[in-house]
Design brief:
It is a single chain. The protein has about 300 residues and is of the alpha/beta class. The chain has 2 domains: about 1-150 and about 230-305, Vaccinia Virus protein VP39 (Rossmann fold), CATH 3.40.50.150; about 165-220, no CATH class. About 35% of the residues lie in helices and about 15% in strands. It has 10 helices and 7 strands. It has a 7-stranded mixed beta sheet with strand order 3-2-1-4-5-7-6, sandwiched between helices. Helix 1 packs antiparallel against helix 2 and helix 9 (about 235-250) packs antiparallel against helix 10 (about 285-305). The protein is globular and about 50 Å long.
Length: about 300
């Protein structure tokens, strides 16, 4: 897989010179074009735009929050999108709580785990990452595509922090924190027709503050209907900070080997597991390197000069 991962990187880097371009979906295309057809693949949350179809990738396993028929209805009823049924791929397993490993046959291992726009919806982000880590075959890769909050309706929200990830895990979260519910409703903005966030555009909130407060109180009391929103919000720098800090704290062995700039509204990370090394006993050289990276990400997040937006 190593040479194929580099081919993905090269194809993504080539996007920089192609502006103006319809960047939406280009990262996913770069992944699909460079993965061997016989690879053992796990795709999480394919929705209406699966990256891997069974006909082309016979060893692909697709997991989603909804079964196939429910997924079609979800897009029609919740997103108001009338997507043709044939655009969906058959979902192999349904996972409701982010613990993907628990719904798969025992001993399942994958050369590639691909997850696009799913990380931000997890309730217990750490448990989800640990589940994916255990499903990686030796030498396997985890590729994540996540929305950059600066380029979405979450632009006014503050990036999620590691302490929130730890709190969610220790409390065994099965629902969003009330403060995240408030932020999602109080700080969500209306995007212009090209789904971009531009400084010259007028700001318009999608909800009024009192509605956000009512949603907050419902979440605090554990009542209210299910609402799909971004439980976590990231920039490339802030997500890398979370991943590095979880690794330094011995909570995962997932190591980000490469992060792309933001294209359209999304960015890509490639991760691998530090095989043969206990999570709580990092090699001193790796620990020192990670500590330096952590400071670099904080500097970029605070003062700028980090990953670009295209």
């Amino acid at each position: 897989m190593k040479d194929r991962l580099q081919a993905i990187v090269d194809q993504v880097l080539a996007l920089k010179g192609s502006w103006p371009a319809p960047y939406f979906g280009m990262l996913k295309q770069a992944v699909r074009a460079n993965v061997p057809a016989d690879a053992r693949i796990l795709e999480i949350g394919p929705g209406s735009t699966p990256c891997f179809r069974h006909a082309e990738f016979p060893n692909a396993t697709l997991v989603d929050y909804f079964a196939t028929a429910e997924l079609v209805l979800h897009y029609q009823n919740d997103y108001k999108e009338n997507v043709a049924a044939e655009q969906f791929e058959t979902i192999d397993y349904v996972c409701k709580d982010g613990d993907v490993e628990a719904v798969l046959p025992p001993g399942s291992r994958f050369d590639l785990i691909f997850s696009s726009h799913n990380l931000e919806h997890q309730h217990d982000l750490l448990a989800h990452l640990r589940s994916l880590e255990r499903l990686l075959a030796p030498g396997g890769a985890l590729i994540l595509i996540a929305p950059d909050k600066r380029c979405t309706f979450d632009a006014l929200r503050l990036p999620s922090q590691t302490v929130e990830v730890l709190q969610a895990h220790l409390s065994g979260r099965r629902s969003p924190f009330a403060h995240n519910v408030f932020a999602a409703f109080a700080n969500s903005i209306v995007l212009n027709p090209v789904r971009a966030v531009r400084a010259e555009d007028p700001l318009e909130m999608t909800q009024d503050l009192k509605t956000a407060y009512l949603r907050f109180m419902e979440a605090q009391a554990g009542t209210g209907d299910f609402v799909d929103f971004h439980n976590w919000v990231f920039t490339p720098e802030s997500l890398n900070i979370i991943l590095v800090e979880l690794l330094l704290l011995g909570k995962t062995r997932l190591y980000a080997t490469w992060t792309s700039d933001t294209y359209g509204n999304e960015f890509m990370l490639m991760l691998t597991a530090l095989d043969g090394m206990p999570a709580d006993k990092l090699d001193p050289a790796i620990e020192s390197q990670l500590a330096e990276k952590r400071l670099g990400y904080y500097r970029a997040l605070t003062f700028g000069g980090g990953f670009g937006i295209y």
